[in-house]
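Re: the pair you flagged

First of the two:
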Amino acid sequence: MYERLIGPRLKEDRHSALLLGPRQVGKSTLLGSLAPDLTLNLASLATFREYVAQPERLEAELAAAPAHVKTVFIDEVQRVPALLDGIQAIVDAHPRRFRFLLSGSSARKLRRGHANLLPGRIVLQYLHPLMARELQSDFNLDRVLAHGTLPGIYSDRDPESRSLTLRSYVDAYLREEIQAEALVRDIGGYARLLDLAAASSGRVVNLNALSRDAAVSYETARRYLDVLEDTLILFRIPAWRGSDRASLVAHPKLLLFDIGVRNAILRRPLDRPLDDERGLLLEHLVGLELRRREGTIWPEARVQHFRTRRGAELDFVLSVGREHWAIDVKASRQVDSRDLKGFVAFAEHARKVTRRIVVFLGTRRQRVDDIEVWPVEDFLADLPG
């Protein structure tokens, strides 16, 4: 089992927690490792039927629970959102008696079920596929760029088995369950939009153009993307705007939550990353590593991208307080001054650029003018965790 970066935080913090993340990122494993005194698995059909019919039974059962029952783990809580009302009543009546550990894969289902997300009573956390710091010596760049880092898939030593599981995940979960959650009537439109979102992952996307390409209305495309974002399958990296907004591109950059899932949706060969996609996939990896820290591991950080209407760009701008890190990703082993035009353009728009960083495929750190050049593995290992 890989040690997750938020594990110590969950172990040391005695507040109740709701841990959200896509399927198979390891939520149940992580929360189960905290040795709860009582576990309710709502993925079990029998348990689900009991509590969906009588959500109030949780209050009655905990009122009669023996004194040693203090930590309660409820898996897949979005399946019975009404349980959160009972949890609030229990926490209000006995603020120090119980600690609740809740997991869920869909904020959308919780909101749609009018769930009370217990502001002030529960800490919202997110779990993503594995990061380089969590993989440590098991990190293999080509494997990550081909198969992604879903824990059960990455830890499988058989490449064919990894590929089969990835394709099954895409077909059984993304194409069917998320489709059902979206209440999709136009199955073909949803399938086309999912494929286009995967093909656009790592790129700046205009929603009007995306809806035209998918042959669905703008509102339908917006709703489908909202569903993918609410289920944590897709992230939007906003554009850095600054003060001179007229000269900057405002469209967001899309990132699918896992590179292997992206490759499986697009039916790419899963034994290796394609050479002509290595640059895009490397940028995707760095973006995911930054985005997975945002709001949880690195609360003060905000990830954006930068592009001018004249075409100058930086892959990412990391804002930490009032400081800005300008970050560009290059799928090359050499970097020279011709690769640094984006930094010059960004300096014209940003007042305080604290660090200028190029992430590349070389093996040794370098410095070109005032720009830090980092091997990708060194950069990922040095990020906060």
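Second of the two:
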Amino acid sequence: MTAFPAIDQFLVLKNIAIVGASQNRSKYGNIVYRDLRAKGYRVVPVNPKSAEIEGDKCYPNLHAIPEKVDGIVIIVPPERTESVVREAEKAGIRHIWMQPGAESEAAIRFCQEKGMNVIFDRCVMVESRPI
């Protein structure tokens, strides 16, 4: 348990999409993907430029994922984050984690207005523990 209920709510999720997952093992989109997978989360990579990441099928967007995901970790530039949270809301995804550097004031405001569980200014790798 943390001192932040929003974080606690996110960390109990089992199926998490990583929007901005990367094939490049030195990029955070790959580092976060591997970290959460190693901790026992079922992670789904999302990147329109990749067919596969770390041996797993990669999807071009959230709507292309065939199974329901419980939450998303966003690792894209801030100017892309707003469209990602809008896509998440349409897909019924209510738990959003914006990794440092992906935050957008407009995206944060949108999530708050829609009653979504939104986390920002925190690193998911630091806050998460093996499940």
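The beta strands are 15-19, 42-46, 52-53, 56-57, 71-74, 95-98, 117-119.

-B.
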